[in-house]
Amino acid sequence: MTAVRVETRRWIIEQPHDSVDGLKREIGIREAAAMLREGKLVAFPTETVYGLGADARSDEAVKKIFQAKGRPSDNPLIVHIGKREQLDELVSTLPDTGRVLIERFWPGPLTLILPHRGTVAPSVTAGLRTVGVRMPSHPVALALLQEAGVPVAAPSANRSGRPSPTEAEHVWEDLAGRIDGLLDGGPSGVGVESTVVDVTEEVPILLRPGGITLEALKKVVGEVRVDPGLQAEAQRPRSPGMKYRHYAPNGEMWLVTGTEADMMRTIQRLADDAAAQGRRVGILTTDERLMRYKADWVVSCGRRSEPESVARGLYAALRRFDELGAEYILAESFPVDGIWFTVMNRLRKAAEGRIIHAERSTSS
């Protein structure tokens, strides 16, 4: 289905404000909230990435999200709320584990999977008996949600398959003319999507790594299982981001693993080979190694010594390769603990599972 062209309003929300209540007096917040109540689509900043919102109770409104994004309709959406009381209207039960996680991490980049009451549109849940709910901590998002007064279904505000948007300009590039409004609140903070945890079973299950690490979850609730769907993605998705092509640049991307020396040597050799074939080559690295590679473009996603900076800069770096026209992209790999676990999850998806294991050096 082709998205209908519409005029997209864009409001710039100046930061900082003294309170969420102060933000609600902004004309842009009030107009955007009215659009949501009218069944229209509004993109807005959260602390993770920009989201594309619609009234979660309206199937007609929610279907516009899939149309605008070109997103498969069997991929469930996360519902965003502005007040804790709204959760009771959406879910039938809240296990003790969920209550503990809410007390520790809400508002914040944590989505909980809970049994729903049937009050959200069928398109939100993709036919599942559960729904993902979160309360974002970004003041613009909270002001919008509270002013709208409705639960808002909101995946990332990008064309499906593209790197998620961490700046308003990314949203404009992908969705201008496809959505009704865009609240420009500056760059997002975390830079990767929310952590998704299923708390419907006795032991909580991590469905998607995100801004809150697995280690942080375990400190609060003890045991946390990692869903096998993070590796076996052919199954029906239980959470957004578990199926289909995600976060990918236009060029063919490969993730290279190995020790530092072996990885760097392999990346440079592959870059040289691709250049010799006439391909436009990009290398994804960090600030520390920018000058150690030779290619058409060497792009940094942050500082390896500051993992959070890599999470913040990853999607913008992937979009940079599209702007430059890179045809073949080689990406460094990272450890798999803490926020790096989330970064590596997104890199594997961006590379669509294409991974090269660097050959070990035979030199002593």
Protein structure class: alpha/beta
Strand segment count: 16
CATH architecture designation of the largest domain: Alpha-Beta Complex
Q: Main beta sheet: strand number and arrangement? A: 11 strands, mixed
In DSSP terms, counting alpha (H) and pi (I) runs of 4 or more, how many helices? 12
Protein name: Threonylcarbamoyl-AMP synthase
EC number: 2.7.7.87
Binding site for L-threonine: 48, 80, 134, 154, 194
Catalytic activity: L-threonine + hydrogencarbonate + ATP = L-threonylcarbamoyladenylate + diphosphate + H2O
Describe the structure.
By secondary structure, the chain is an alpha/beta fold. It has 2 domains: 9-230, DHBP synthase (Alpha-Beta Complex), CATH 3.90.870.10; 252-357, Rossmann fold (3-Layer(aba) Sandwich). 32% of the residues lie in helices and 18% in strands. The protein contains 12 helices and 16 strands. The chain has helices at 20-23, 27-37, 59-69, 86-90, 96-105, 122-125, 139-148, 168-175, 214-221, 260-276, 307-324, 339-350, and strands spanning 9-12, 42-45, 50-55, 78-80, 110-115, 130-134, 152-153, 181-184, 195-198, 205-208, 225-226, 252-257, 281-285, 297-300, 328-332, 355-357. The strands form 2 sheets. The chain has an 11-stranded mixed β-sheet with strand order 1-8-2-3-7-4-6-5-9-10-11, with helices on both faces. Strand 9 (195-198) and strand 10 form a beta hairpin. Helix 2 (27-37) packs across helix 7 (139-148). The longest helix is centred in the last third of the chain and has 18 residues, at 307-324. The protein is globular and about 60 Å long. 50% of the residues are buried. Residues 233-237 have low confidence and may be disordered.
